[in-house]
């Protein structure tokens, strides 16, 4: 059977936002040091599925790396590396392009959301993205994939690719069927201006999201301007039904304070936004401030970040290359 191993990634496609922290990076840190090996990646090859300015890509990769490190990923405990420095990802992705079915890709809701009415004009890479993501995960025989809710369907597709490969090539259990781990109160942080969309690095307006590097005043202003209904907070969680914007702010508070939405509601029952929003802003500043300071410090020493990534790539390849070789063998190369 497969040894438990964790894999996950974050795209360097703009600055890190609060959803990346609460839904992903913070949880990676919480999982660190448990009984399994963890592999964390800056997935730059995923970033270029939409246009990235070549002058900014490397620094964006360094900034996500700085975010991982500042939040508490320890490169001596976890493998921390950059996807494009391990070419085996691209190789396995091609093999998986020949395993995955077009019909499966056509069901991916994230592609439909991102392509919108423009499906003929987006890159082929955006369409094939989930096969590359399957390669990222299965290249390490990862068994557990901590992600935000938006990535659940892609992890399920990864399982389908693993199962089809194992079946078609008579390679029973060669690839594990990885489990998505979607836990905690903030697995889907919503856009602050539009409660029907998730918070994302690449939204239209900066007011939609809290960036990891926002200063205290900006954080306070963004929460103050966040859309809500006019009602005060209810006495029970039930009372938040049908109030997505209010629920989102409660979930963010719970994620940042490491409690449950129930606990937040008991603390703030009956409070109006004039009370809750400043409390939320203070909490966010207290939690994010030290991380963004450390990110800034790390970004002043790019050579050090590059050294961490180079060492991480070596450790990643040590796991990945034997698995890629066996995959080629199984396929008859
Ligand atoms: P983005 O959508 O901001 O570009 P990525 O695609 O790089 O983020 O995702 C990196 C990780 O962050 C994934 O595990 C993803 O599920 C998680 N994530 C992204 N946005 C959110 C969000 N709004 N709430 C919770 N988790 C999120
Ligand atoms: Na995403």
From TrEMBL:
<keyword id="KW-0030">Aminoacyl-tRNA synthetase</keyword>
<keyword id="KW-0547">Nucleotide-binding</keyword>
<keyword id="KW-0067">ATP-binding</keyword>
<protein>
    <recommendedName>
        <fullName>Tryptophan--tRNA ligase</fullName>
        <ecNumber>6.1.1.2</ecNumber>
    </recommendedName>
</protein>
<dbReference type="InterPro" id="IPR014729">
    <property type="entry name" value="Rossmann-like_a/b/a_fold"/>
</dbReference>
<dbReference type="InterPro" id="IPR050203">
    <property type="entry name" value="Trp-tRNA_synthetase"/>
</dbReference>
<feature type="binding site">
    <location>
        <position position="136"/>
    </location>
    <ligand>
        <name>L-tryptophan</name>
    </ligand>
</feature>
<feature type="short sequence motif" description="'KMSKS' region">
    <location>
        <begin position="198"/>
        <end position="202"/>
    </location>
</feature>
<comment type="subunit">
    <text>Homodimer.</text>
</comment>
<comment type="similarity">
    <text>Belongs to the class-I aminoacyl-tRNA synthetase family.</text>
</comment>
<feature type="binding site">
    <location>
        <position position="189"/>
    </location>
    <ligand>
        <name>ATP</name>
    </ligand>
</feature>
<feature type="binding site">
    <location>
        <begin position="198"/>
        <end position="202"/>
    </location>
    <ligand>
        <name>ATP</name>
    </ligand>
</feature>
<keyword id="KW-0963">Cytoplasm</keyword>
<dbReference type="Pfam" id="PF00579">
    <property type="entry name" value="tRNA-synt_1b"/>
</dbReference>
<feature type="binding site">
    <location>
        <begin position="148"/>
        <end position="150"/>
    </location>
    <ligand>
        <name>ATP</name>
    </ligand>
</feature>
<feature type="binding site">
    <location>
        <begin position="11"/>
        <end position="13"/>
    </location>
    <ligand>
        <name>ATP</name>
    </ligand>
</feature>
<feature type="binding site">
    <location>
        <begin position="19"/>
        <end position="20"/>
    </location>
    <ligand>
        <name>ATP</name>
    </ligand>
</feature>
<keyword id="KW-0436">Ligase</keyword>
<dbReference type="GO" id="GO:0016874">
    <property type="term" value="F:ligase activity"/>
</dbReference>
<comment type="function">
    <text>Catalyzes the attachment of tryptophan to tRNA(Trp).</text>
</comment>
<dbReference type="InterPro" id="IPR024109">
    <property type="entry name" value="Trp-tRNA-ligase_bac-type"/>
</dbReference>
<dbReference type="InterPro" id="IPR002305">
    <property type="entry name" value="aa-tRNA-synth_Ic"/>
</dbReference>
<keyword id="KW-0648">Protein biosynthesis</keyword>
<dbReference type="InterPro" id="IPR002306">
    <property type="entry name" value="Trp-tRNA-ligase"/>
</dbReference>
């Amino acid at each position: 059977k497969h040894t438990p191993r964790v894999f996950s990634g974050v795209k360097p496609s703009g600055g890190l936002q609060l959803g990346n922290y609460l839904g992903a990076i913070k949880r990676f840190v919480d999982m660190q040091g448990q009984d399994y090996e963890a592999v964390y990646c800056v997935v730059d090859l995923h970033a270029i599925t939409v246009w990235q300015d070549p002058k900014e890509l490397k620094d964006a990769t360094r900034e996500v790396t700085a975010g991982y490190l500042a939040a508490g990923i320890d490169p001596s405990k976890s493998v921390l590396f950059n996807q494009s420095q391990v070419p085996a990802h691209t190789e396995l992705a091609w093999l998986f392009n020949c395993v995955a079915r077009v019909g499966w890709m056509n069901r991916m809701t994230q592609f439909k959301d991102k392509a919108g009415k423009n499906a003929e004009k987006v890159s082929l890479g955006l369409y094939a993205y989930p096969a590359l993501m399957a390669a990222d995960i299965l290249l390490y025989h990862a068994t557990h994939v901590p992600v935000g809710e938006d990535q659940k369907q892609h992890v399920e597709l990864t399982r389908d690719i693993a199962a089809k490969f194992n079946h078609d090539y008579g390679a029973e259990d060669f690839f594990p069927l990885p489990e998505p781990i979607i836990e905690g109160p903030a697995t889907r942080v919503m856009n602050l201006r539009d409660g029907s969309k998730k918070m994302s690095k690449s939204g239209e307006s900066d007011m939609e999201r809290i960036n990891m590097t926002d200063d205290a005043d900006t954080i306070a202003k963004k929460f103050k301007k966040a859309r809500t209904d006019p009602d005060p907070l209810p006495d029970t969680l039930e009372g938040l039904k049908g109030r997505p914007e209010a629920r989102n702010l409660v979930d963010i508070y719970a994620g940042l304070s490491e409690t449950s939405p129930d606990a937040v509601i008991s603390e703030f029952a009956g409070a109006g936004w004039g009370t809750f929003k400043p409390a939320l802003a203070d909490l966010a500043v207290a939690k994010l401030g030290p991380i963004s300071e450390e990110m800034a410090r790390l970004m002043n020493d790019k050579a050090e970040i590059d050294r961490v990534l180079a060492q991480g790539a070596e450790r990643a390849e040590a796991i990945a290359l034997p698995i890629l070789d066996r995959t080629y063998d199984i396929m008859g190369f």
